[in-house]
Amino acid sequence: MFGRETSKEKSSSPVLSSSPEQQYANNYYDPDLPHPNAEYDDLHVQCPPHVQRRLVTKIDIRVIPVLSILYLLAFLDRTNIANASVFGLQKELGLKTTQYNTALTIFFVPYIVFEIPSNILLKKLKPHVWLSTCMFLFGLVTICQGLVQNYSGLLATRFFLGLAETGMFPGSFYLIGMWYKRSEAQRRYSFFFGSTSLAGAFGGLLASAIGKMSNMRGYAGWRWIFILEGVLTTVVAILFFFVIPDFPENAKWLTDEERSYVKARLRKDQGRSAAERAIGIRDVVNVFKDYKIFVGGFMYFGLVVPAYGYAFFAPGIIQTYGYSRIGTQLHSVPPWAASFTFAMIIAYFSDKFKHRFAFTLIPICLAIAGFGILITVHDNHHLEYAALFFVTMGTYSAMPVIVCWFTMNLGGHHRRAVGTAWQIGFGNIGGIIATYAFLPSDKPKFYETGYSICISFICLSAASCVVYAVSILWQNRWREKQPTDLGITEFEKTEKGDLSPDYRYLF
């Protein structure tokens, strides 16, 4: 199927190297193909187009749904405290002033600090081991969150929830990035990231149903939200230990020929990955010598503030429009569902045109328009509710494009593992800001302060996207003008990743 020839064809076709390493060493296109519709991807790994499509579909089925469900449950367990708050969490635990905001904030402390170590462990222990273990742990902590009796207990569970969830998002993005070419990654990234929108919608529906269990076996409705959703996560985690995919180099569900082709097509698109070498401190330090790493962090950081601002406070904001507890939960669903649909549309056209920059700015402008309406309109609840659609559609559509754009422009396992974790980790500092953006004292003033903070950080993200776009465009043009023979060995190119003179960034 991949790279094989019949005895009849051998006489009229180039001889393929038996060793994958020898195949990769001869990167050129040979028009004399034994199959009329076959292609070598410039790497001497033969693959008819219909077989390539079938292989990518096979990867899609094994990789994307599993990681999407994983992150859906992670985001659900992280943000269901907003639904629980509507059903009386703050009142029963006696939370005062900003104690609820502090409980939201404590989650991000370990979540931010341990992003990079988590990705290093992911590579060392294999994804199916590390991700499923983390998933089981944050499900267990979510159950405990439903059993807390005071503010201290809530703080402790939120801290350990952040610690257990630290590897979910950067680890999944890193893993997806090691399976797909840059030109085909956006739809997969957006579908995966869209699980946050589905979690918001799913969480609202679940909360509206679970909230009716109030006083069952002596537990308030908000406790059942944590307990039942935590149990669901732990059960799924056990099953996922056996189904979460590993990196292409270790995927046992691919044949040897399929595995060779997957590695070859990624090598041509992204360069050599250096998957066989462990990540050391020197690799981490070298990554941060590139200024674009910091720009990528600010691109994501600016959107995390409005994203978490909405995720944590949307039920409270919607409740100010006069809806009941159940009505509030149900009205929180449509904006999330709309954001998922719009994100997939943006992703489709981004992949179609093989372009990222414009598809970060278009959703960002939509989010700014939504917050602009919320700041200025306070007497038309229908318009205010419609503005929430703009906020979610803009914010949650731009975020996956930004992360995909940055992640897929990082070459090699080392730069991608560290760079992705850095972007997500640094960006999530915005989550701390978001937790204090919407204070109880601002509620009578229609949360104008919170909306203004969100707009400011969205503009920061837009400016960072422009800086990043100009940077990679300049570097691509500069590399085009350089001589091709710079005396750099293949090993050195592998170590450099996207800093190699042969590498071209996707704009």
Please characterize this protein's 3D structure:
- The protein is built from 24 helices and no strands.
- The model is unreliable at 1-43 (pLDDT under 50).
- The longest helix has 38 residues, at 49-86.
- The chain is mostly helical and 507 residues long.
Please write out the topology.
Elements: H1 7-10, H2 20-25, H3 49-86, H4 89-93, H5 99-106, H6 108-113, H7 115-125, H8 127-145, H9 151-165, H10 168-177, H11 185-193, H12 195-210, H13 221-240, H14 256-270, H15 281-287, H16 291-319, H17 325-331, H18 333-352, H19 358-376, H20 381-408, H21 413-427, H22 429-435, H23 448-481, H24 490-496
Helix pairs in contact: 3-8, 3-10, 3-11, 3-12, 3-13, 3-16, 5-9, 5-22, 7-8, 7-21, 8-9, 8-10, 8-13, 10-21, 11-18, 11-20, 12-17, 12-18, 16-17, 16-20, 16-21, 16-22, 16-23, 18-20, 19-20, 19-23, 20-21
Give helix % range. Answer: over 70%
**What is the rounded distance between the termini?**
34 Å
Radius of gyration, taken over Cα atoms and rounded to an integer in Å: 24 Å
Inertia-based shape: globular
Tell me the β content: under 5%
- Number of strand elements: 0
Counted by DSSP, the helix tally is: 24
- Structural class, by secondary structure, is mainly alpha
What letter string, H or E per element, gives the SSE order?
HHHHHHHHHHHHHHHHHHHHHHHH
Unreliable runs, pLDDT <50, ≥5 residues?
1-43
Provide the residue-averaged pLDDT: 83
